[in-house]
Write a structure and sequence with these properties.
heterotrimer, A mainly alpha (557), B mainly alpha (174), C alpha+beta (358), A: 557 residues, mainly alpha, Cytochrome C Oxidase, Chain A, 16 helices, 0% strand, B: 174 residues, Four Helix Bundle (Hemerythrin (Met), subunit A)
């Protein structure tokens, strides 16, 4: 019945002028469309950030290379980091949250649909501002362009004295603006989850994706604000003559570091927790078992949220804090490994005794498990402060965080694409291309990021546009660059899959994966009102109960 | 609103931390002890405005629109008085003592923290005025109680922040 | 028979590809480990595992312990993952029924909570011990004291008690376990953040303006040790290189005496000295005995005692000196040395003068 409605909608759509469709998309407040807008926006910036990474890697392919000047190189790594974190990872995760959370909790939309749109357009404006810096950032004597202060913009490098022109201001304002967008969306997610669950869906019956996005949103609220505050302070320094970080006036460069990392560390948990959410939905379905230890998974995530607010100075082990402060942050950082490790074991426990189907979403999640394990262990290595005094600020760190973000978050994201693309568009992505995408990307990923640990161990610091020959770094840098091209090809295959399947993919139907959460009970794509009538649920897997009336979950929970 | 208050509290906390961190560290210029005068009267104004806005909300629930408008105007007046007081203090600091945001660390942290608060007071006054405007046009009744409550909550937050700022700047910081 | 049946039903291509993948992974790891630890004896590869100084040694020992634990955890979890992926794959014959729906197990979850907590406690205690050992190490009376000041994009080294000011190349005496003579460095910055990192001698410590830091090295082999700035400080962060010469006590004392002497060569190369003193050179550079007392750039009094110029960016040769003065951007684009735009005659004279500054 809902497919008839869609047929009518599609027929109407075919005859409408494209201007009207565009207008509809630009003025939409529907969570599903905003979710898609966030995701498409992020994909565009993913390509741009990828090009920046490719430029970096070509320059570093051999020592004393002159592919780009040092000034351009410094802009590239700054823009690459800033783009990937703020205009790829955050929007794409907000996009999926936007699309999925109302559907999974049985609601018709988010709590504040117009605030939702406001949040998206603020984020979009932020990205535009950041890239406008290439044009508008020039200052005295043509100095300044895109920001070149690194994505964490340490003071006093960002003061007027050392950053001429407006490049640092574009960094500041772009992130300030998109920060307000992030806070808006986080408020929306929290209000939606706390107030708009369907009847019967107690908090303890919510899908894990909803729980984890709730924790993520709470962290955004507490974590983005310190960055906002610090950026206001930086702007006061740069434009009103303030001295917050002006070391010549007695100000403190380390104060910026503390404020930034009080944001920066929870931020990475903001990024990984939604990725955990995807894995927690996909792994059970393709193992054909419920998630192992649901209550502990929730508790562990909340623990990660709290402890994550107390570990920030492990980014600052080398700045000369006293041994007691260093030891404190060693302890909290190691402590956070415990709930994180528990989650890995719970996912393994979910797969144990199951009947695993190696469809594309699942193999990406298996890759995630392996890679996140390694990433977590290199993180534990760096939590050992003396070891970090060697490893910190070197390519070992760069390898570690790319392992988490690319090997962990991006792999889960790819899994999420293959899993939910049928729901969003009504068509399945091609399995063969999917598997090709996975293997090629995995090979490229490991070529680049496994190798990258080694120059770090051999003394190569980060953020250098070139390096001396004869230090044993050349071969690894070359291999890393080759891996980038392999990943690029894999990504192109992915994009091709998206486009081809959108037009020609097999029809998915409501529930192609035989899954158990509410979004699979509606048509693909869902109608604009989501549910014809708001469902009532009695367990964590309402569709399992429907499909197995003789053995419903509600008997066991 | 509760979430927004959490977020804003985090922002204010960072400014308070910066203020406390830099107490006594200015390399030059006027110190807090030399130039600050405790703004008791204006603080009382602001804190009373919390009371008036609270009572206004309660009366609105009972349908007393007239009383609401009166108390609402009083709230705005008290809030505006507070802003006037801040402005007066800044005028004195700048012209009599030469303390600006760029003078020294005290100047920077003081004007930022108090200024951030004053900005939030201003935003609150604008929102209160919008509600007043609709109230005068007869559009605010008991059905809008919950929305008025949300705005009241924001106003209470602004006052609570002032209690913290007051303590940090005029009590602890000297 | 069960075994034969299982073997017949198994999905061989997948299993083989997985095993090959694992084998490659292990091979890669071993290869990498071998390559890492096998460094040439001439210290050209600044590996953190090739430590030659007490703090770097402590870190290395701790790292072995940490790598052992994390390696073990990796093997256990990786084996579990591989086992699960092979053993619990869906077999075509059995595809219809859903497996047993297990929701959790308190005992198992307790076990895999408690064991990691114990590991964390052990790791923390081991770490805290080394932190204190390095950060709170006592300073013996015979320690050499150096003040390192980070600049954009070069290192200033002062030996306050010896009256020496030099740049970019640090000389320290080798330290003997019986009579230790470590070098304690006070770390300051003249502009933005930098970081002093010579991996074979110690972990890195940052140089932050208005925030004095300290570090120490206790080298027990002589030789040249390489490092570089490890905190992004601007355009030429990449070429802010470090060279630490660990000398025998005799060589160190000879070097000190040489550095303490006033500048030579002024009389013989009067034209060059005149060029130095009448152009903007002396705004930034100091040479004892001349009017030059600038501190923005490196002290040139004993320029020829250094093997490199521009903080390691180029070898200290007449040709490079000439190039550096006329067009620094050709060696280090974005450095704060201005192109001096001297006439050829002045330039030649100046270079000849500088070459006398032993």
């Amino acid at each position: 019945m809902s497919s008839d409605v869609l047929a009518i909608q599609n027929a109407e759509a075919a005859s409408r002028p494209w201007v009207e469709t565009l207008h509809e998309w630009v003025t939409t407040i529907d969570h599903k469309r905003l979710g898609i807008l966030y995701i498409l926006y992020a994909l565009v910036f993913l390509v741009i950030g990828g090009i920046e990474a490719t430029i970096i890697r070509i320059q570093l392919m051999r020592p004393h290379n002159d592919f780009v000047s040092p000034q351009v190189f410094n802009r590239m790594f700054t823009m690459h980091g800033t783009t990937m974190i703020f205009f790829v990872a955050m929007p794409i995760l907000f996009g999926f949250a936007n699309y999925l959370v109302p559907l999974m909790i049985g609601a018709r939309d988010m709590a504040f649909p117009r605030l939702n749109a406001f949040g998206f357009w603020l984020t979009a404006l932020g990205g535009f501002l950041l890239y406008f810096s290439f044009v508008g950032g020039s200052g005295l004597y043509g100095a300044g362009s895109a920001p070149d202060v690194g994505w964490f913009a340490y003071a006093p490098l960002t003061s007027r004295a050392f950053s001429v022109g407006h490049s640092a201001d574009y960094w500041t304002i772009a992130l300030l603006v998109s920060g307000f967008g992030s806070i808006s969306t986080a408020i929306n997610i929290i209000a939606t989850i706390l107030c708009m669950r369907c009847p019967g869906m107690k908090l303890s019956r919510m899908p894990l994706l909803a729980w984890l996005n709730l924790v993520m949103a709470g962290m955004v609220i507490l974590a983005v604000s310190p960055l906002t505050a610090a950026q206001i302070m930086l702007s006061i320094d740069r434009y009103l003559g303030g001295h917050f970080f002006d070391t010549q006036a007695g100000g403190s460069a380390t104060l910026w570091m503390h404020f930034f990392w009080i944001f920066g560390h929870p931020e990475v948990y903001v990024l990984i927790i939604p990725a955990f959410a995807f894995a927690s939905e996909i792994i059970p379905v393709f193992s054909r078992k419920p998630i192992f230890g649901y209550p502990v998974m929730v508790a562990a995530t909340i623990c990660i949220g709290f402890i994550g607010l107390s570990v920030w100075a492990h980014h600052m082990f080398t700045i000369g804090m006293n041994s007691y402060a260093n030891s404190f942050f060693v302890f909290t950082t190691m402590a956070i490994a415990v709930p994180t490790g528990i989650k890995i074991f719970n996912w393994l426990g979910t797969m144990w005794g199951g009947k695993i189907q190696f469809k594309t979403p699942m193999i990406f999640c298996i890759g995630f498990l392996l890679q996140f394990l390694i990433a977590g262990l290199t993180g534990v290595m760096m939590s050992v402060a003396p070891f970090d005094w060697q490893l910190g600020n070197s390519y070992f760190v760069v390898a570690h965080f790319h392992y988490v973000i690319v090997g962990g978050i991006l792999f889960c994201l790819f899994g999420a694409f293959y899993y939910w693309f049928p729901k969003i568009t009504g068509r399945l992505l091609n399995e063969t291309l999917g598997k090709l995408h996975f293997w090629l990307f995995a090979i490229g990923f490991h070529l680049t990021f496994d190798s990258m640990h080694i120059p770090g161990l051999l003394g190569m610091p980060r953020r250098i546009y070139t390096y001396e020959p004869g230090r044993g770094w050349e071969i690894w840098n070359l291999i890393e660059t080759i891996g980038v091209f392999v990943q690029g090809i894999a990504t192109l295959i992915f994009v091709a899959n998206l486009v081809l399947s959108y037009f020609n993919g097999p029809k998915a139907g409501n529930d192609p994966w035989d899954a158990w959460t509410l979004e699979w009970s509606v048509s693909s794509p869902p109608p604009v009102y989501n549910f014809a009538s708001i469902p009532t649920v009695a367990s964590r897997r309402p569709l399992w109960d429907l499909k197995h009336p003789e053995d419903p979950d509600s008997h066991y929970e | 609103m509760a979430c927004l208050i959490f977020a804003e509290s985090a922002i204010f906390t960072i400014f308070v931390v910066a203020y406390l961190f830099y107490v006594g560290k200015s390399l030059s210029g006027p110190t807090p002890r030399e130039v600050l005068e405790t703004p008791i009267f204006y603080t009382v104004c602001l804190l009373s405005s919390s009371l008036t806005v609270h009572v206004a909300g309660k009366l609105l629930e009972r349908g007393r629109r007239g009383a609401l408008l009166l108390l609402w105007v009083l709230t705005i007046v008290l809030g505006a008085l507070f802003l006037y007081g801040t402005g007066q203090e800044w005028h004195r600091l700048i012209y009599e003592h030469g303390l600006t945001i760029s003078t020294n660390l005290f100047g920077t942290t003081y004007y930022s923290l108090v200024g951030l608060h004053a900005f939030h007071v201003t935003a609150g006054l604008i929102m209160l005025s919008i509600v007043l405007f609709f109230g005068l046009a007869g559009r605010v009744g008991p059905e809008q109680s919950s929305r008025v409550d949300v705005l009241s909550l924001y106003w209470h937050f602004v006052d609570a922040v002032w209690v913290v700022v007051f303590t940090v700047v005029y009590v602890l910081g000297r | 028979m069960r075994i034969v049946e299982t073997m017949q039903k198994a999905d061989w291509p997948a299993i083989i590809s997985r095993v090959v993948g694992v084998a490659l992974l292990i091979a890669g790891v071993l290869l990498a480990a071998g390559l890492c630890t096998a460094t040439p004896p001439d210290n050209s590869v600044p590996s953190i595992f090739d430590s030659h100084s007490t703090p770097a040694d402590s870190i290395r020992h701790l790292s072995h312990f940490v790598l052992g634990i994390t390696g073990l955890i990796f093997l256990v979890v990786f084996s579990l993952l591989s086992y699960v992926v092979v053993k619990f794959r869906r077999r075509v014959a059995d595809a219809e029924r859903e497996p047993a729906q297990v929701y959790g197990s308190t005992q198992i979850e307790l076990a895999w909570t408690i064991i990691p907590i114990l590991i964390v406690v052990v790791l923390f205690l081991a770490t805290a011990r080394v932190i204190h050992a390095i950060q709170d190490a006592p300073r013996p009376a015979e320690a050499v004291e150096v003040t390192a000041i980070g600049h954009q994009f070069w290192w200033e080294f002062q030996y306050p008690k010896l009256g020496i000011v030099t740049a970019n190349e640090l000389h320290v005496p080798v330290s003997d376990a019986a009579h230790p003579t470590p070098t304690f460095l006070k770390l300051l910055s003249a502009d933005t953040d930098h970081s002093f990192w010579v991996p074979q001698l110690a972990g890195k410590t940052d140089l932050i303006p208005n925030h004095p830091n300290g570090t120490w090295i206790d080298p027990h082999e002589t030789g040249l040790f390489l490092g570089q700035c490890a905190q992004y400080c601007g355009t030429q962060h990449a070429k802010m290189l470090l060279r630490v010469y660990v000398d025998t006590p005799e060589d160190f004392n000879a070097w000190v005496r040489g550095q303490q002497e006033p500048a030579k060569g002024g009389e013989k190369e009067a034209a060059g000295r005149h060029a130095f003193e009448t152009t903007a050179c002396l705004n930034c550079h100091a040479i004892t005995g001349t009017n030059g007392t600038g501190r923005f750039g490196p002290d040139l009094t004993h320029l020829m005692s250094r093997r490199t110029i521009a903080s390691g960016a180029a070898e200290n040769s007449a040709q490079n000196l000439r190039l550096w003065i006329q067009n620094p951007d050709s060696i280090k684009p974005g450095s704060l040395m201005p192109a001096m735009k001297l006439s050829d005659a002045d330039l030649d004279a100046l270079v000849r003068y500088l070459e006398t500054l032993q």
